[in-house]
Design brief:
With 208 residues, this protein is α/β, with parallel strands linked by helices. The protein has one domain: Vaccinia Virus protein VP39 (Rossmann fold, 3-Layer(aba) Sandwich). The protein has seven helices and nine strands; from the N terminus they run H-H-E-H-E-H-E-E-H-E-H-E-E-H-E-E. The chain has a seven-stranded mixed sheet, sandwiched between helices.
Length: 208
């Protein structure tokens, strides 16, 4: 199923369905980013606003973009603040944000739907200010290797989204090519024992 259509269908139950990936992403994003200071945030693929609420608490200005109109409607219903601005945009095209705007750009559970990482990293570099941070939280490629994909169920029918596998080296290479240095890399597991395949991988890159 094409991504935009899928997320428009998923929107009505995205926040309420059992979803370990969504919940772990929300938890780890707060844990990892609490050590950093940022005033202007650009959130790519904000979805229903699950992380936008956190950025709104910490930043002076947040621009949150997504191409799913129904997801954006959900986010706007939750968050009605003057310093938070929602915009409908396709991440594969030019983003409606001025260059050098962001202290922090965050993308969560989105990049598995984007085939060309380099094009996205190019735009990230332009939109970050000097020494700005780029935070990525994604389904771990190890999960993809064993067949895990974004999916949801509506009326007893399972819908599987179109996805692309990016190896850890793909993220590192795209960053290096676009003058972004790796600051932190973490993996998240369903259990603290770390005896299973990690569910998520998290990167923090910095513009140089």
């Amino acid at each position: 199923m094409k991504t935009e259509e899928a997320y428009n269908q998923w929107a009505s139950q995205y926040d309420t369905n059992l979803n370990k990936t969504r919940d772990l992403d929300q938890k780890k994003t707060r844990e990892i980013l609490k050590q950093y200071d940022f005033k202007n945030v650009l959130e790519l693929g904000c979805g229903s606003g699950k992380n936008t609420t956190y950025f709104a608490e910490r930043a002076q200005k947040v621009i949150a973009i997504d191409f799913s109109e129904k997801m954006l409607n959900l986010a706007q219903e939750k968050i009605n603040l003057k310093h938070v601005h929602f915009k409908k945009a396709n991440l594969l095209k030019i983003w409606p944000v001025e260059d050098s705007f962001a202290d922090l750009i965050s993308v969560n559970l989105v990049l598995e739907h984007i085939q060309d990482l380099n094009n996205l990293f190019q735009q990230v570099y332009r939109k970050l200010n000097s020494k700005g941070l780029f935070y990525i939280s994604e389904l771990h490629p190890f999960k993809q290797y064993i067949g895990s994909k974004a999916r949801f169920e509506v009326d007893d029918k399972v819908h599987v989204l179109e996805t692309f596998t990016h190896h850890i080296s793909d993220f590192i290479d795209a960053a290096n090519f676009n003058n972004l240095s790796l600051v932190d890399l973490q993996e998240s597991f369903d259990e603290e024992t770390k005896e299973t395949v990690p569910r998520l991988i998290h990167f923090v890159f910095q513009k140089y």
